Amino acid sequence: MALYKIFKETALPGTLEPNSIYFVAPSSKPDYVEIYVTGTTSDVVKRVINSDDVQAMIDSAIADLAEIEIVADISARNALNPTTTVQALVLDASDDPTVDSGAATYIYNPSTEEWIKIAEYESMDMVIDWSYIQNRPSSSVSDIDDAVAKKHTHANKTELDKISEDSNGYLLYNGDYPKIAWDSVNW
Hints:
- The structure is a single chain.
- Helix content is about 20%, strand content about 25%.
- By secondary structure, the protein is an alpha+beta fold.
- Among the domains are: about 5-50, no CATH class; about 65-120.
- A four-stranded mixed beta sheet has the order 1-2-3-4, with no helix packed on it.
- The radius of gyration is 40 Å and the shape is elongated.
């Protein structure tokens, strides 16, 4: 049975002893401890992963996401045959039934082996004409503009505010029944 020596250091020594455990607290990272273990000779050294290793693994895992393949069309996208997560900007994505024209961006999901559309650009430089809008109002643009300009504007608002009705629903004007134009009934 081998006996292990245990060392607490601020840096890994240049020469290591066999059958030893080194706890290294680098002065640049005082809240971390790195662990190194030597075998029966000091040439065999194992260590526990540290924060730099974790960051390197993260960087490696997302490296493909930072890049985007630019291809001419859907056929060229499909010819990529990725094995990891990849993004592709397809300049002419019109072969995709959900894209009428223009470009689209896709991301490849290796677990399902499918491309997922995440954006499309068919209207990016498009000028939209009123006549092509689906479910638009039946009024013309000029009628709508005119109605907006006149909203809550009445030249006779004072008179309109005097209109009401009695409990039977009969029209009242300024609290009285409206007068007819004739003030005489002599004929």
